[in-house]
């Protein structure tokens, strides 16, 4: 049956809902959300570049591969199950099967906003789920096998992200009806992915030699980190900016808050770094931007610009200090997902309870809230803490259960072999490299596999060839030569 869609004299779309009442979609709103959806699609590769830069060079390509494939799994899951489990009528805990496979999702008003049709709303929301699982799987960086992570991404989306997002954003969700304030994903996106990634890091264990002086676990590319952060900041403006599903004063306020919070976070993190080390850090600046963006995400549609600046600044300082928790808890969180996403989401949720402003929330003429502490609504902090506590506890338990069960499946062990960690996940899992064999060879030198090599005897203390001739001869060593020395590592 053809869709009943016409145009108004102003050129907007006119259709009718299930009760026969007219529904008008503004083409400007639709164009804005559609454009934002496409721009948000740059964020997964931004995450891939960021995480790749944080790792050693022989594992750089595997993280970009994961960003692309897990993002794809997240999108396909949303099409098959996720949209319906998140926004289907269901109950207070989870949706139902009404829209499995996007059946019946078309020109009708969306369950989350009547400003745009369901078909546009669902693909915009699909980006949220897909990005969340990319953050999640980074917990196995440099020591995880890739195939089990694809299974985990699908299962985790079903049993963790969809229920949590339903609690927070669905009109039948229990946190939504309780009055929890989360505008753009502090809980479902950041707290859930950060806690889940931290649990994964604990489950798979530390990287080989982590914490010992023999191995150097430092970021291999500050350029990748800065470039990935730039992509994320750009995409985040649309991630937050289009969360009200319309182009109006509220969306402009969201973009303002996003940019200023990121800038404040950059300054806050670098200031703490400088206070402790007396040095500036490009990696620290990027981390601060991300912390500020994470902190403002739950608050973005509820707070004024001065509050957004304060939230970005305070969240970045808190996240910087939170990076020490992984050492206290003896967890090798290679990309600091726990310190950034989990801690940042928690701090952002709490600060939302303080700075939420009922006047700002109503900039779209539709959103009515009691506000936060600045409006004298003291009860809101209890609601925010209820949301944080329930999401942290549920995510931690369910993530561990999924890891335990998937790890029992033959061929689905999450931890890679010792040889794979030495040679690198890129070679062992992909058979491809981000860099040439000379770079790989220098990296593996840290395992003392080349102690008898006359070539390496001519290298300086940093592992760099002493002259161009040495570099040339080293670069011609074959793949078999590298692999042949791997077996020596257990005795090294």
From TrEMBL:
The keyword Transport applies. GO terms for molecular function: ammonium channel activity. Residues 455-492 are annotated as: Disordered. Residues 31-435 form the Ammonium transporter AmtB-like domain. Residues 476-492 have a biased composition (Basic and acidic residues). Coiled coil: none annotated. It is found in: Cell membrane; Membrane. SUPFAM superfamilies: Ammonium transporter (SSF111352). One of its GO terms (cellular component) is plasma membrane. It is a multi-pass membrane protein. Keywords: Ammonia transport, Membrane, Transmembrane, Transmembrane helix, Transport. The chain crosses the membrane at residues 30-51, 63-81, 118-139, 146-164, 184-204, 224-247, 259-276, 283-301, 307-325, 337-356, 376-406. Belongs to the ammonia transporter channel (TC 1.A.11.2) family. This is Ammonium transporter. It comes from Rhodotorula graminis (strain WP1).
């Amino acid at each position: 049956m053809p869709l009943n869609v016409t145009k108004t004299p102003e050129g907007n779309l006119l259709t009718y809902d299930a009760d026969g009442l007219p529904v008008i979609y503004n083409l400007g709103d639709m164009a804005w959300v559609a454009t934002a959806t496409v721009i948000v699609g740059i964020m997964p590769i931004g995450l891939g570049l960021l995480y790749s830069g944080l790792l050693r060079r022989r594992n750089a390509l595997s993280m970009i591969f994961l960003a692309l494939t897990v993002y794809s799994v997240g999108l396909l899951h949303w099409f098959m199950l996720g949209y319906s489990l998140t926004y289907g009528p269901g109950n207070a805990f989870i949706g139902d099967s009404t829209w499995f496979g996007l059946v019946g999702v078309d020109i009708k008003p969306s369950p989350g906003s009547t400003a745009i049709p369901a078909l546009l709303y669902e693909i915009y929301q699909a980006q949220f789920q897909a990005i969340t699982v990319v953050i999640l799987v980074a917990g196995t960086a440099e020591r995880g096998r890739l195939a089990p992570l694809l299974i985990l991404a699908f299962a985790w989306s079903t049993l963790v992200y969809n229920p949590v997002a339903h609690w927070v954003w669905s009109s039948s969700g229990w946190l939504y009806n309780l009055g929890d304030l989360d505008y753009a994903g502090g809980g479902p996106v950041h707290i859930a992915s950060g806690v889940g990634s931290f649990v994964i890091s604990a489950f798979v264990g530390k990287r080989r030699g982590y914490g010992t002086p023999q191995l150097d676990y430092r970021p291999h590319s500050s350029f990748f980190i800065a470039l990935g952060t730039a992509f994320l900041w750009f995409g985040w403006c649309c991630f937050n900016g289009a969360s009200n599903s319309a182009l109006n004063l509220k969306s402009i306020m969201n973009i303002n808050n996003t940019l200023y919070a990121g800038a404040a976070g950059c300054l806050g993190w670098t200031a703490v770094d400088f206070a402790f080390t007396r040095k500036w850090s490009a990696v620290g600046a990027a981390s601060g931007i991300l912390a500020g963006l994470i902190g403002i995400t739950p608050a973005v549609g509820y707070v004024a610009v001065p509050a957004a600046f304060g939230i970005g600044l305070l969240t970045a300082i808190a996240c910087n200090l939170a990076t020490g928790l992984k050492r206290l808890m003896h967890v090798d969180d290679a990309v600091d997902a726990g310190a950034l996403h989990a801690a940042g989401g928690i701090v952002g949720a709490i600060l939302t309870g303080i700075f939420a402003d009922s006047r700002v929330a109503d900039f779209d003429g539709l959103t009515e809230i009691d506000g936060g502490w600045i409006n004298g609504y003291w009860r809101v902090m209890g609601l925010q803490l209820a949301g944080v506590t329930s999401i942290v506890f549920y995510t931690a338990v369910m993530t561990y259960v999924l890891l335990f069960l998937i790890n029992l499946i033959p061929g689905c062990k999450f931890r890679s072999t010792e040889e794979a960690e030495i040679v690198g996940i890129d070679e062992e899992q992909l058979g491809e490299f981000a860099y040439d064999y000379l770079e790989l060879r220098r990296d593996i030198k840290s395992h003392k596999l080349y102690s008898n090599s006359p070539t390496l005897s001519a290298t300086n203390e940093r592992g760099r060839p002493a002259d161009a001739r040495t570099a040339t001869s080293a670069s011609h060593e074959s793949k078999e030569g590298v692999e042949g020395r791997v077996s020596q590592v257990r005795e090294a």
